[in-house]
Amino acid sequence: MSEITPGSDLREVADQVSAQARTFLSTVTQVASGGMPGAELSLLVLAASDLLAAGARLAAIVDVVPKERYEPDAGPDTDLDPLREALSKMFDGFDDYTEVVDPVLGEDVGSASLSGDLACVAEALAKGLQHFDSGHELEALWWWQFSYFSLWGERAASALRVLQVLLAHLRLDVEDDVAAEAEYDALHS
Fold first, then answer.
1. How confident is the model at residue 184 (pLDDT cuts 50, 70, 90)?
2. Is residue 179 a contact partner of residue 168, using CB atoms and an 8 Å limit?
3. Of all residues in the chain, what percent are helix, strand and coil, respectively (each to 5)?
4. Among 36, 52, 37, 39, which residue's Cα sits nearest to residue 121?
């Protein structure tokens, strides 16, 4: 049986991660659909930050190990190609970026994309939600914890860094006269 006892610490973590996963998926989907014009980067920074806080909770608990040593079939994988494609179009011109592959083990540089990172995170979260929603809460918690360490934690952190840098460029890379006018307006309004 993979159900978590009501009132237990694991139940609380599973419920929190489930809620955060749903929020992340909803936000990314709304942003990709074009439903949040002008707020895309800010919303994605918030969603990724909140999700990484949920991941930190997963990292802080002991390893979750279901009694069954196999993963029950959660159903077909969610098709996230449309999400990835919509994000790629939205990020056209700044989707791809360069990163250090493993800063602990070396200086090798690789390429990544915001659309790929966000879709990868969404896919891992959706798989956990399939387990959670089918009553396999412990399996979901194991999956979210395992995939946090092996996949989505790193991809979400990389995406967050790039999103924050993009937002900073948009806010700070302005002509001096525009910045002076905005400062004047802020001080005198």
1. low
2. no
3. 65, 5, 30
4. 52
